[in-house]
Amino acid sequence: MADRLREALSPYLRAHADNPVDWWPWGEEAFDEARRRDVPVLVSIGYATCHWCHVMARESFSDPVVAAQLNDGFVAIKVDREEHPDVDAGYLAAASAFTRNLGWPLTVLATPEGRAFYAGTYFPPRPAGGAPGFGELLDAVSQAWTQRRDEVDATASSLAGALAEASVLRPSADGPPGPVQLDAAADALVALEDRVHGGYGGAPKFPVTPVLGFLLGHGGEATASARRSLAAMAASPLRDPVEGGFFRYGTRVDWSEPHYERMLYDNAQLLPVAARAAVLGDGLAVGTARGIARYLLDVLRRPDGGFASAQDSESEVDGERTEGGYYALDAAARAGQPAPAIDEKVLTGWNGLAIEGLATAGALLEEPAWVDAARETATMLLERHRGDDGRLIRMSLAGEASAARAALEDYGMLANGLLAVAIADGEPALAVEARRLVDATLDAVAEPADGGPVFAVPGGADPVLRAHDLVVEADPSEGATPSGPSALADACATLFALTGDARYLDAARAAVARVAEPMLRQPLAFGTSLRVADELARGLTQLVTVTPSAGADAELVRTTRRHGASVAVVVEEERVQHWADAGFELFAGRVVRDGRTTAYLCRDFTCRLPVTDAAALADTA
Length: 621
Description:
By secondary structure, the protein is of the alpha+beta class. It is 48% helix and 11% strand. The protein folds into 3 domains: 11-166, Glutaredoxin (3-Layer(aba) Sandwich), CATH 3.40.30.10; 179-538, Alpha/alpha barrel (Glycosyltransferase), CATH 1.50.10.10; 541-618. The chain has a 5-stranded mixed beta sheet, sandwiched between helices. Strands 17-16-18-19 form a 4-stranded mixed beta sheet, sandwiched between helices. It is globular.
């Protein structure tokens, strides 16, 4: 049996290297082998900190009898969903035809052409709870493959056609949602709020941080709802009181019995939400933000400046394997136990979220060390996560780059992170790099057309998906993180506010219009798109405060940071021209008045008279 996973970069794949299953990594070679043997393909998708992935690995993939079934009758492919999000998205869409309980591990049966004909999630080794045992499933699939092949091929072809059709987004004829529609979406979300325990919807209950971001900025009862939910989550078992990080979700409505893995993306996004809540007057939110930042910087940050993608839910406590047992201990008791393992792979997009979170929160809460850390990570990614052709790579581990293509989310999330640092520190260099990333995705659209995709991955989608005609448009929903298109729409809105270039405004509007109908129908799944649509509907506000090189009015700077404008930049006078020369029109002609720190507040580049008094600026918030 070949040992193909031993040298994989993905910690998830390496964890399966000792299985008796003859695993293949994702690639054309596996499908070639399936065609050569004329056997179906089993695609098993998971990630390193997934609890039920661990369980299925121990129960089924480590069983020599089950492994023999797999090896004899299938080609088995192991995929890290975090390394190959486009592969995961495509097969998740296919799996939705067979089960409503989507999640990981994802178990997909496919033809040698990669087309799914059956799918599920976790399968126990023996029948339990109405679910077939994994061995029984393999027997049934093998029988169908050899005795009812026409039916299998017909199912696969029909499903592939339906997915291709369903993946085409048709933009709203009315364009992006307007204020009335966005108010209705906010009201619908507030109606989902659990007024007892906080959060939205029932169990299992997730932070849905993109939704918190939309509600927090929408005003009125929407903002109050977001503040209540954040406070409830921070006081609940969802948050680790020792290290400050949040767990992935609660299995009960009161957030108890959390799923104990801790994800970079949850904590990266909750950090600026907590900082904004603190600025609105939530005193406890300051501690929440500081705890999250401490967790990011002390636990997840790697020596090279990148952030690890997650921390496991399981660990050994007093020699016993347990899920969550470590987190039940206080700080002193933890010191004598091994901490849950860290998934050390560095993902470009998720690191972009961490950069954005640290830079934004650092500026709001006057924590320059957070901004410095964000800048260092941004610099590292630009140096190590770009190929010779300038395109982003998806992932690295200990400095070694994965061959996996970057996804749209990598471009969008990193662009937002770079813009956040530039806005926080007043230096334009990273904003220039962000613009290059966004431009690359706009230029990569092969045939721009009304209603067509707004953004595309430079260099094209995953080559295996392309070769098998399995490429589907990126999933626009964003329950836990922004989608690629919504992240890029967000970056485009910021770039328009800084440059005045209508290309970015048009792209942001078009991207939001493409998801207007599902966004308004299922607002819980479109938090970032709702937030961008809200800003576009209200009109972008821009605030530039110019400080003399000799010093700044601390109160006016603080008021600028916390004003609530779409973009709020504090910049030294000697750097203003650098911004203008780089094409950021917002900065043209901005100077200090009478040697004093001077603030310029604009709406869509129409500006009020400049002010040099913090109270006068505060009155415009």
